[in-house]
Amino acid sequence: MYDVGMTVFNGLAWAMATFLVAAGLTLIFGILHILNFAHGGFFMIGAYVSYTVMIALGGALPLWLYLIGAMVAGVVVGLLGWAVDMLVFRRLRDVDDAYSLIATYALLLLCGGVVQLIWGLNYLGVMPPPVLNSVIFLGDMFMPTYTIFIILCGVLVYVGLELFIAKSQTGRLIRVVAADPWMAQLLGLNVKRIYLFTVILSFALAGLAGGLLMPNQSLSPELGGIFLLQAFGVIILGGMGSIRGAFLAAIVLGLIESFGVYFFPQYPGIFFLLALAIILLIKPEGIMGREQTA
Amino acid sequence: MAYKMNRRGIVKGIAASTLAVPFINLRAATAQSGPIPIGVVTPLSGPVQLIGNFVRHGAEIGAAHVNDNGGINGRPIELVFRDSKANPNDASVAARELVGSGTNLQLGTISSAVALAMGPLLESEGGVVITTGAGTEKINHENYNPHVFRVGDSPVSRNAGLVRHIVESRPDLRKWGGIIPDHEYGRTTWKIFEATMRKAVPEMTGEEAEIAEPILVPYGSGDYRNYIAQAMRMDVQGIYTSVYGGDAVTLYQQAKPFGLFDKIDVLLDSANEFLVATAMGDQTPAHWSGFHWYYEANKGNPLSDDLYAKYVEATGDTYPMGWAAEAHAAVLAYAGAIEKAGSTETDDVIAGLKGLRFDSATGERHIRAEDNQAVKNAELAYIEPSSTAPAGFEVTDYVSLDGEKVVEPARPGQMLDTSNL
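Structure tokens for the assembled complex are given below, as produced in the milestone run.
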């Protein structure tokens, strides 16, 4: 029972950390149909910005200051999203997908270079705020509070995005543009502005994810690629562009990865890829298909 | 048969000659006079640039030392840098281009995959390389090639030294586990750790060591919690790990809240030197780490003191790591070999390197003629978190073990035999 509980707990931790990174990625794909390779790079910049805020404020911070640091990262990266939309994404809307891939990959390399120039090559790291740097025991199970916090953050971000897309006026407009941008323009909607808002929101989510996941993670210019493969796996399996799909896919893949490691420890790190391949063979359109875009 | 020369033919001939120039081996022209070029093929960009920078600084300081002391037979060393990106393809292109332009003597390899690719390449191209941190045991065993030398410690001397020191200082610890990266280097280091531990514990205590199955972890993961949970289930007193660089920092950070380091008596880290401690500061778990070169262990050695002072002066970084000393030693080894051979030709330098004894930042080293492996001291340091040290950690103990006692017997062309460690 202890082992099952710990395995589920660790699977959920993997799932929610990955979902936090994947949320912005799937949002931007759902609306702009751009597979943003640079997402990992902006996640990394968010982590570094948050690190800088934490160090500037003295290192071991109370929870509320840590959250402010993560939000600052979200705002900074959101503003970078605004610049990227103006300079890059607008030029990619009417060109072949291959150009988008090349352009966003170039942006990823640029992010690595910027990080190297500003923060250097050394590995950096900070621990979670003291209140999140403890363990809760449930019988024989030991659950780090920071991991519980990340699971809660993943759920909160998912619920917030679902409510925003489904209930808010802006969310409804985003869905309209995602479904048929041409018709939305004919109806008088400012599609360009909605695109811009979506990009800023997507980038802000990447920055926020970087800020939240930064403790318990080594910071280096390699960080941009570390969650990217997992996040792509999650949005592909979830159904490209579906937030709900990404959330469910993250849980499915997280649990498979976790139980895979538990039962077959001699083959670490392959269960996520194996599960992705098998599930896509059975259901190539992903868990939610395309009908749930954004 | 009469050949007719016309203008078009002459132009074609000139063009062909011009195109061929880069492929003509220029070594003959540079062999006997002027600066001696030494190629430094090391990662100058990409994920491993951090290590490549240590190599670059170490080589530069080594070359400056030789040049300040009159050069090699009056000729200065000139370093020629190329970016290997720690990738065998890029490294091969760079190495071939360097040999083609007259730079047959090279150093700077830190990746095992690159080191293994260099042997056949340089043998066919007529060059030689000294590795400066590549960890594979294969280069002086089954993949031995006379054109590849290692002036640093072999994985055996590093890991066997670590084990023997721990067994001697803590004979009460019999139950061991491991967390190792799931690739060739990780499995090699574990094989050495396990074999040495199974031999050393009974020798020391008369009792058998209990060693659990190692926990394999993937390379470049952002989440190690499942593996940490496995480690928490192990009934062990000590953990050995060869998880490396950023992966090690993430692993240690994530393991700390689980209480993994409170549960064990000793953490043995194969090779991170200060990589983990500089990232984690006062959150660093106390651990023994293997070092290529730890400057405090070599205080009083003029070469070490000079290397440390010049490195700090050049970078402002007060925690230089051992790759700098390996590159420094590689330059000094070339200097010694060229002086001994009286030539910079590849075959002469290979002959000069074989059996060479030379001074380095870790004291005297000698390169075994049989397998091109240097015998040098194995250095270990105990790093602990500190509330008073400015960096948040400090070295509270260190040892420098006699290389002759921890290096494996030379067996070029044959696989590592762990029974005689």
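Chain B touches chain A at residues 47, 49-50, 53, 182, 213, 215-223, 225-227, 229-230, 232-233, 245-250, 253-254, 256-259, 275-276, 278-280, 283 (CB under 8 Å). The two ends of chain B are 71 Å apart (CA to CA). Further analysis is deferred to the final report.
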